Amino acid sequence: MKKIFSLIILLAGIGFFHACEDNEKIVLQQPESFVLNIPKYASGIYDLKNTETIEFTTSQPNYGFTAATLYAVQISLSQNFAEYTTLPGTYSAAKFDISAQDVAVALVALHDVEEESDYPADPHPLYVRLTATIAGSKVEPVYSNVIQLPQVLGYFALEAMTMPEEMYLIGNVAGNWDWNSATEMIPVWGSPGKFWAMQYLGQTEGGDNAEIKFNYAMAWNGNEFGYNEVTIGEGSAGLAGTSDAGGNIGIGNPGWYIVVVTTAIEGREYTFSVDFLPPHVYLQGNVNGGHWGTTDEIHRFAIPALSLGADAEFISPAFTAAAQGDDDGGVRASIQLPGHEWWQTEFMVFDGVFVPRGAGDDQARVAGTAGQRLSINFTKRTGKIE
Question: Where does the signal peptide begin and end (predicted)?
Fold first, then answer.
């Protein structure tokens, strides 16, 4: 029997009802089910490897009015749906196409196979049902009838590899091998999988040279990578004096470095290259006389003495002109990576906090006056203009 709910609909705000007056009562019914139609070509073979999409049509559940319904697709190898998976995405129309690749990927998990040789070679039945919900409501999901696609030929499909969105640097100096204290590297704008950090790679209190590793998660989970898993860029090995330190990247020339990790995807694996660059930071724009994208030495920040340790500030040259903010670009600063525009690695200080642009939008403007300087502590992620 259908469950009946009473909803009070106010004039403002509920988009899935037609025009109504204040305090008008609408009776919302909780349907028991709704109809998923059998596709026109269901009796044929669905060759998922050579098919882009599968079309489905459905009738809307009878809620007692026309509702903004969202449909999701569930599939199973058994008609009773003892085990099933929900495919990615939702659909707002009663006729829609689903991705054949999404089905293929889901089938790998349903078949519980880890090797391509174990995947079924012959077509087999696949059972499909829909769930329906009302967008923005707390109404319980409604399930459609179950239909059978008698002959579905899957393949050993794996989810597409995507670039890591985070990267962390750890070491005996950087974080003391504690992931909770590791350096979170900064994404390079417009270059997925590429990250940078201004990193102190001096010596430990005991006089040992720095050793580092990386991971795209803050964990010892088997995905960390060091000397044997990376390609060190041309020129970087000599600059930093890198070596194999028991699988870590050893730094033979203690100092500050811009450390860059670049990720690539080869087959089902990530590959990584690491570069060590001089720790040069530059003022940009009106505060340096109107120079944008400059790498002139006169506009460089002073590099702190190595004896000051990691907790030291990079200090800019004095501003040569005022910068008011939005009208003239404000105070701007950046590092410069080969092959990139300066603004793709820019950063600024807001209320004492160092904030990199990273992969995000253009940053808010900060004003400055002639004679002031910008100071940044890259380790603590703090800074000031004074």
Answer: 1-19
Q: What is the DSSP letter of 302?
A: B
Q: How far apart are CA 342 and CA 363, in angstroms?
A: 14
- CA–chain centroid gap for 200, Å, is 26
Helix (H) or strand (E) holding 384: strand 382-385
Domain encompassing residue 137? 3-153
Q: What is the pLDDT of residue 231?
A: 97
Contact predicate 57/97, CB 8 Å: no
Q: What is the DSSP string of 226-246?
A: -GGGEEEPTTHHHHHTEEEET
Among 252, 277, 302, give the residue marking a domain's end.
277
If one counts the domains in the chain, the total is 3
Measuring CA to CA, how many Å separate 258 from each of 28, 84, 115, 335? 61, 48, 41, 9
Which residue is listed with tokens 């989810």? 159
Residues 6+ apart with CB under 8 A from 99: 52, 53, 87, 88, 89
> Which of 208, 383, 377 has its CA nearest to residue 304?
377
91 lies in the same domain as 115: yes
Strands 3-9 and 53-57: unpaired
pTM above 0.85, yes or no: no
* One domain, residues 141 and 127: yes
Give domain status of residue 269, yes or no: yes
pLDDT digits (tens, 9 = 90+) for 62-85: 887 888 899 999 999 999 999 999
